[in-house]
Here is the input.
Amino acid sequence: MTEHTRPRIYGTDHAAPDTHATRPGNEYVELAGGLLDGQLLDVTGLTADDRTQGAYLITPHSAYGPGGRASYGPTFSRPDGPWVWEGDVP
Here is the structure.
């Protein structure tokens, strides 16, 4: 898989050389839908309960403008991923 086809890691700097590099031993879920579609989210430090809650992730282009958040969470049918976009929140 080339660097251009590997998913970007959420929260990495676009200009950083390791934008697509996963860390050995870390756990990731894919984000599906919305502005962050296809990116990977590092969920290594989240408890099982935290993972059922999902996350509000900052995005530069939400319905609420720069700094708005996109809500992503697991589905009941596939709780281990991917997390799906639930909408934008302020």
User: Anything to note?
Assistant: The two ends are 36 Å apart (CA to CA). The longest strand covers residues 83-89. Residues 1-90 form one domain.
